Structures are given as C-alpha cells and as structure tokens.
Amino acid sequence: NAGVTQTPKFRVLKTGQSMTLLCAQDMNHEYMYWYRQDPGMGLRLIHYSVGEGTTAKGEVPDGYNVSRLKKQNFLLGLESAAPSQTSVYFCASSLRAGADNEQFFGPGTRLTVL
Amino acid sequence: AQTVTQSQPEMSVQEAETVTLSCTYDTSENNYYLFWYKQPPSRQMILVIRQEAYKQQNATENRFSVNFQKAAKSFSLKISDSQLGDTAMYFCAFMKPRWGSGNTPLVFGKGTRLSVIA
C-alpha cells in the first residue's frame, strides 16, 4: 500500500513551458486535491475532485487545469508556466468529504519556473 | 471568511522538555474541526491530532495534546517529552463543515518551525 504518490519530485521549467504533475492513490479514495505551498504560508487548495470524471475549482485555480479520468489518478497541468507558479505542490486524497475523513498527503513536487 | 493565525514563526525546545504551540482562528460556524499537521524536512504532511468543536474534552495522542478553548477560538498544541524527531514545521488547520467549488475545505495557518535541541 503506497498511499499517495506524486511524480516528478522535482522539476525546473522555463517561462511559457507546459507540464503535467501526476498524483496516484491506491486507497480507493473518492476525493482528491491539489494544493500549493509557498514560503511562509500554509497550503492553499488549487483544484479538487469528488470522484472519477469530476473536477472543481479551489481557492487559487487560475493558471492550472486538472483531470480525473481514472479514480486513482489526479493530474495537474500548467499550460504556460509563470515564475509565480514556483512552489511546492501537494496532492492529497480522502475517502469522502468531512473532517472525519482524514486527508492523506503525497510527498510533494518542488517546481521552479525560471 | 475563516482565518487561522499562528503567532510564533519559530520556536525551540530542549530535548525531553515540553513546548506549546499557539493557534487562534476566526469563524462564525458552530460546528467544525481543527487539526495540527506536522511537516518534517522530508516535506511529508502528517496529521498529528484532530479536535471536533462539539467535543469539550481535549484530544490527546500519546505525547501530543491540545488545549481547545472554543469561546476564545484558541487551539494550542502541547508536545511533552520532546524528541529530536519532533523537529518540523507545524501547521494548524481549520475545516469547515460545508464547502464547495471556489472554496477550500482546509484553511491552514502559516506554520511554526519547531527545533528540538539535544
């Protein structure tokens, strides 16, 4: 049982390049989330999904797109990377919504946009 | 909007001593959940402890306990018998009972960096 995994762990992009971050979970969780963590700040929600084939905007969705074609995978895309998107990105999953359903986090992806 | 404030950016404690990390929050909700997450240098976010607002009894998990003061909207974390492995960033977080698109389920504080000194 690997829990929540993220690939890649590190990435450097040039402004304007595109990339996709992959999150995978093997816990059969319905809900999946993408957060970003910036220095001196807590995590902020980018997008989330409440089940296969669904996505919804979080707190800071601009500049990102997501897809959930399979229940176990949640992809985060940057179509045209900007330096403001330099951050550490965390994926999380939970069985359902509600605080009695713990969110399990992946190890994070450090992205630098030059 | 809900906010979470951690007023101590950095703290240090001697090994085996006790340390308390502060957290205050602002909400108009009556029922909600509060969490403390630990983020060691490995970056992994680990749930340390959770508290349900409708429960008066303070949550405890081994060496970790909370002091939940609902009227004061305060949620501090006490770490007893501090160990070197407790060195990490600690985030306080508030979860809304209801949330939806354009919103966020978990509101995080900015974190407190705790160093345990041998």
Q: What number is the mean pLDDT of chain B?
A: 91
CA(first)-CA(last) distance of chain B: 41 Å
**Major pleated sheet of chain B:** 6 strands, mixed
Broad structural category of chain A: mainly beta
CATH top level label of chain B: Mainly Beta
C-alpha geometry of chain A: globular
If interface size is counted as residues with C-beta under 8 Å from the partner's C-beta, which chains form the largest one?
A: A-B, 24 and 30 residues
Which stretches of chain A of 5+ consecutive residues score pLDDT under 50?
none
- In the CATH hierarchy, the third-tier topology of chain A is known as Immunoglobulin-like
Number of separate structural domains of chain B: 1
Beta-strand content of chain A: over 45%
What is the residue-mean pLDDT of chain A, rounded to a whole number?
Answer: 92
Q: List the domain count of chain A as a whole number.
A: 1
The termini of chain A sit apart by: 36 Å
Radius of gyration of chain B: 14 Å
State the helix count of chain B. Answer: 0
Determine the CATH topology of chain B.
Immunoglobulin-like
CATH H-tier superfamily of chain A: Immunoglobulins
Beta strand % of chain B: over 45%
Structure report:
The complex is a heterodimer of chains A (114) and B (118). By secondary structure, chain A is an all-beta fold. Chain A has one domain: Immunoglobulin-like (Sandwich), CATH 2.60.40. Chain A has no helices and 11 strands. Chain A has strands spanning 4-7, 10-13, 19-25, 31-37, 43-49, 56-57, 65-67, 73-78, 87-94, 104-105, 109-113. In chain A, strands 2, 4, 5, 6, 9, 10 and 11 form a 7-stranded mixed beta sheet that branches. A 4-stranded antiparallel beta sheet of chain A has the order 1-3-8-7, with no helix packed on it. In chain A, a hairpin with a 6-residue loop joins strand 5 and strand 6. In chain A, 36% of the residues are buried. Chain B contains no helices and 12 strands. Chain B is mostly beta strands. The N and C termini of chain B lie far apart (41 Å). Chain B has a single domain, classed as Immunoglobulins (Immunoglobulin-like), CATH 2.60.40.10. The A-B interface holds A 33, 40-45, 48, 56-59, 88, 90, 92, 97-100, 102-103, 105, 107-108 and B 4, 9, 32-33, 35, 42-47, 50, 52, 91, 93, 95, 97, 99-111.
